[in-house]
């Protein structure tokens, strides 16, 4: 019997998928090392390929052009995985939104930042520096900065839903204040330059944000707990 009209079989290979994922991880690791160590402008796709031990065409196939590589390096540094993860799907955001007390929400986020910044801050600083001369990097810098600002407004609105947010300042202003302190630059100043530990940084942020964002009684209560 003829099988001319039989539907084509799709071939799925777990091993091939694993190899593709390993190649992608190697390319991203190489790109991160070079972007941070040598700067974006001095890094070439050929150099990334050499560092990763793959062909240049493999880099293009796995990720894309150099701006695509930088985007993926930044996104994976934020998510802590091999892929970009939307903010609402991140574990700490889910826990934050499930928490009932504003101080608990703030603590969850401050501690999450202390885990994110060691891998994100060096990449973010490299992106910031590249944004001064490269249009693609400038666009990515603005996009991520604006996205972070929008997410901070959601964070402040989530705090407001507890009824504990201070009411004498606009939510957008409070969100901008959080945005200024959750940036990698703040981490670099206190941890890299002043030698703070990640734990001290997280405790400081949680205490500072409780004092800054919460209404009088809640802020005083949290300050008393932090001082013990």
Automatic annotation (TrEMBL):
Pfam families: TetR_N. Residues 21-81 form the HTH tetR-type domain. It comes from the Bacteria. Keywords: DNA-binding, Transcription, Transcription regulation. Residues 44-63 bind DNA. InterPro entries: Homeodomain-like_sf, HTH-type_TetR-like_transc_reg, HTH_TetR, Tet_transcr_reg_TetR-rel_C_sf. PANTHER family: HTH-TYPE TRANSCRIPTIONAL REGULATOR BETI, HTH-TYPE TRANSCRIPTIONAL REGULATOR RUTR. This is TetR/AcrR family transcriptional regulator.
């Amino acid at each position: 019997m003829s099988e001319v009209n039989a539907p084509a079989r799709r071939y799925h290979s777990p091993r091939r998928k694993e190899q593709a994922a390993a190649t992608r991880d190697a390319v991203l690791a190489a790109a991160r090392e070079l972007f941070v160590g040598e700067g974006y402008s001095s890094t070439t796709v050929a150099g990334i390929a050499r560092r990763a031990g793959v062909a240049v065409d493999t880099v293009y196939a796995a990720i894309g052009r150099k701006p695509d590589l930088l985007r993926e390096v930044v996104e994976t540094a934020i998510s802590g995985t091999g892929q970009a993860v939307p903010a609402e799907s991140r574990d700490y955001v889910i826990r934050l939104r499930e928490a009932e007390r504003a101080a608990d929400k703030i603590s969850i986020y401050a501690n999450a930042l202390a885990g994110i910044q060691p891998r994100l801050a060096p990449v973010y600083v490299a992106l910031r520096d590249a944004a001064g001369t490269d249009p693609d990097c400038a666009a990515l810098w603005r996009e991520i900065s604006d996205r972070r600002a929008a997410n901070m407004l959601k964070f402040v609105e989530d705090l407001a839903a507890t009824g504990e947010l201070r009411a004498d300042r606009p939510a957008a202003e409070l969100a901008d204040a959080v945005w200024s302190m959750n940036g990698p630059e703040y981490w670099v100043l206190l941890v890299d330059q002043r030698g703070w530990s990640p734990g001290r940084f997280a405790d400081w942020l949680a205490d500072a944000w409780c004092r800054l964002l919460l209404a009088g009684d809640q802020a005083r209560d949290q300050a008393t707990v932090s001082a013990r």
